[in-house]
């Protein structure tokens, strides 16, 4: 049964989308976990809903709208971050909710039938069109190129920003690169698990990898493998038991994290 | 000879609040200097200005004759220990190599042979060579502190600045720490910034006390008068003083 299903185009798309998401998550999610940028990532990902709504309103691919909004949100949150404002936490929440609100308004004023928002909010990996796969692959290439080009600098800024400043590294610029990487990573994840669940797929494989790795390189590699496992197990279970794919993937990721956490406690 | 560090009438303020007022101080090459003062006295602010992270409202700072933004390439900076996230997944060698980044800026740059050499030399100098490939999380507190010093040394500085370096060092390790500093003085000037006057070795040859204003005393002894003006109430601090410190003449009744 599982073998036959692999011959369907939509299923192949689902696997490819899942793999792209897992690679992006493993790399960028590791930075998010070690630098504790989960709230920032939450703000950026929820703001993406405004872009999805804008996409429907303008009649363009909602994922392209999402890219525009995540990048915009990344710039706003970066601006708060480098100015070290007290209100950063509050404004992150405001960006989060405002993005969602804009999405709902855009959808409401779009003429015609209300589109299926459910798959953008909670993901539907079995409905990813081939055009989205191309966009996701392009985003992954950009993410990989940027991380490879600036790897040492990004690690330095993540580990000790103040020391990086003393060394004369362009810390605000590198922080912007980190935020933009988050923005670009979130877009492929929207198709896989949906806006609401993005944070979990971004952070769970990296958090799991952190439990047993001692350098960022091995953490990223392990997080990618764990992410691939999470997505494949999630898709298989969702198909076998006819469950929503996004939620099943997240539960698989949470179960793997819980398993490693329990294993670490038992072996200590 | 150009001094390692020269403060000329330095004033720093946040808005209308003056934190450091007209501070002047000179640290020559191979000096071992201490800047002491109570918490909130402006030490961190002055340190940030020396590192080129804060603008001055008046005066000038020169590092080997250059303004901080240019001169800081010659500074090895050892931040306060507690500001570190030692659970960060990074090995000792990876952390130390980061000091070589300014020499390797740009896209797709990887560390070169001389960077690895500088990293290994730095570890040799502070006696951590065997721990190169260990994650920083696995080191003891004292080893972690030395690893941070090695990180500063890997940049091959000519001025080493340590912020509150003795907070986590116990008495036996302190001897070791100060003999390490002595060895480093052959190739650089060293400045210790601390609120803990009991932590200052007799080997310090230059002292400044900072509490908004900077009080200096050339021959590195602290007088009661200086402490009274800096701390307001010297009694506590002197009572904590340990013998063989710089406090040669304790006030009547404070001696132990």
UniProtKB/TrEMBL annotation, chain B:
Residue ranges annotated for the ABC transporter domain, each copy included: 5-243
Domain of life: Archaea
Classification via Pfam families: ABC_tran
Gene Ontology molecular function, alphabetical: ATP binding
Membrane-crossing segments per the record: none
Keywords, in A-Z order: ATP-binding, Nucleotide-binding, Transport
Record keyword Iron-sulfur present: no
Family in the record: Belongs to the ABC transporter superfamily.
This protein's name: ABC transporter ATP-binding protein
Organism: Methanocalculus taiwanensis
């Amino acid at each position: 049964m599982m073998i036959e299903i692999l011959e369907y185009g939509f299923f192949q798309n689902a696997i490819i989308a899942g793999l792209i998401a897992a690679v992006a998550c493993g790399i960028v999610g590791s930075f998010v976990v070690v630098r504790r940028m989960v709230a920032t990532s939450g703000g950026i990902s929820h703001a993406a809903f405004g872009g999805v709504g804008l996409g429907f309103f303008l009649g363009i691919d909602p994922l392209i709208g999402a890219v525009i909004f995540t990048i915009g949100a990344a710039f706003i949150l970066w601006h708060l971050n480098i100015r070290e404002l007290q209100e950063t936490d509050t404004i992150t929440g405001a960006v989060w909710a405002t993005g969602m609100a804009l999405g709902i308004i855009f959808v409401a004023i779009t003429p015609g039938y209300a589109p299926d928002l459910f798959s953008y909010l909670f993901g539907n990996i079995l409905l990813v069109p081939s055009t989205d796969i191309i966009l996701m692959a392009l985003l992954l290439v950009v993410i990989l190129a940027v991380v490879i080009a600036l790897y040492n600098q990004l690690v330095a800024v993540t580990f000790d920003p103040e020391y990086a400043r003393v060394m004369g590294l362009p810390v605000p610029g590198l922080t912007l690169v980190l935020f933009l990487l988050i923005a670009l990573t979130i877009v492929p994840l929207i198709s896989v698990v949906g806006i609401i669940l993005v944070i979990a797929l971004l952070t769970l494989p990296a958090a799991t990898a952190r439990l047993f790795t001692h350098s960022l390189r091995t953490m990223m590699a392990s997080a990618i493998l764990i992410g691939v496992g999470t997505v494949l197990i999630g898709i298989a279970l969702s198909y076998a038991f006819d469950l929503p794919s996004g939620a099943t993937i997240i539960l698989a990721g949470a179960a793997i994290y819980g398993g490693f956490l329990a294993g670490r406690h038992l072996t200590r | 000879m150009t001094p390692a560090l020269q403060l000329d009438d330095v004033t720093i303020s946040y808005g209308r609040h003056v934190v450091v007022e007209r501070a002047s101080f000179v640290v020559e090459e191979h000096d071992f200097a201490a800047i002491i003062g109570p918490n909130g006295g402006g030490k961190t602010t002055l340190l940030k200005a020396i590192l080129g992270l804060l603008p001055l409202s008046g005066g000038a700072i020169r590092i080997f004759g250059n303004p901080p933004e240019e001169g800081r390439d010659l500074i090895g900076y050892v931040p306060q220990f507690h500001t570190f996230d030692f659970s960060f997944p990074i090995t000792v060698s990876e952390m130390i190599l980061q000091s070589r980044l300014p020499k390797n800026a740009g896209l797709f740059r990887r560390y070169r042979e001389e960077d690895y050499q500088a990293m290994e030399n730095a570890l040799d100098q502070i006696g951590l060579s065997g721990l190169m490939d260990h994650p920083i999380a696995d080191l003891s507190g004292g080893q972690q502190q030395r690893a941070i010093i090695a990180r500063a040394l890997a940049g091959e500085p000519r001025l080493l600045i340590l912020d509150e370096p003795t907070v986590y060092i116990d008495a036996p390790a302190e001897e070791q720490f100060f003999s390490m500093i002595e060895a480093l003085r052959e190739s650089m000037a060293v400045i210790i910034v601390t609120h803990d006057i009991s932590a200052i070795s007799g080997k310090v040859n230059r002292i400044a006390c900072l509490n908004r204003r900077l009080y200096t005393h050339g021959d590195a002894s602290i007088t009661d008068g200086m402490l009274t003006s800096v701390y307001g109430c010297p009694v506590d601090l002197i009572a904590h003083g340990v013998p063989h410190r710089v406090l040669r003449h304790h006030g009547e009744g404070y001696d132990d």
